Amino acid sequence: MDREEWLIKEEGYDGEKTADNGNRFFLGNGYMGVRGTLSEFTKEDLCAVNLAGIYDKVGDGWREPLNAPNFLYTELFAGAPLNVKTAPFEEHSLILDFYSGILRRKTVFLVDNKRISYTCERFPDMKDPHFFYECSEVESDREVELSVKTGIDLDVWDINGPHYVRFEENCKEGRLLEVTGFTAEDREFVRVSSSVSVFSPEETALSFENRDKKLLSTATVLLRPGEKLKICKVSHVFTSKDGKEGKDDRPSSSKEAYARAREEHIAWWEEAWDRSKVLIEGDKEAMRALNYSLYHLHSIAPRHRKSMSIPARGLSGQTYKGAVFWDTEMFILDFFLFTEPEVARTLIKYRLDTLPGAKKKAADYGYSGAFYAWESQEGGFDACSDYNVTDVFTKRPMRTYFKDKQVHISAAVVYGIRRYLEATGDMSILAEGAFETVTECALFYYSLLLKRAGGDRYEIRDVIGPDEYHERVNNNFYTNMMARMVFLEALELFDRVNLLPADKRASILEKYDIDALRNTFRQAAEELFIPSPGEDGVIRQFDGYFSLEDVSVETVRSRLLDPKEYWGGAYGVASDTRVIKQADVATALALFHDSYEKSVLNANYNFYEPRTEHGSSLSACMYALLACYCGRADEAYPFFLKSASADIKGGGKQWAGLVYIGGTHPASEGGAYMNVLRGFAGIEIKNGELTATPKLPGNIERLVFKIVFRGKRYKVTVEKGREEAILEPCG
Ligand code: BGC
Question: pTM to 2 decimals?
Answer without folding.
Answer: 0.97
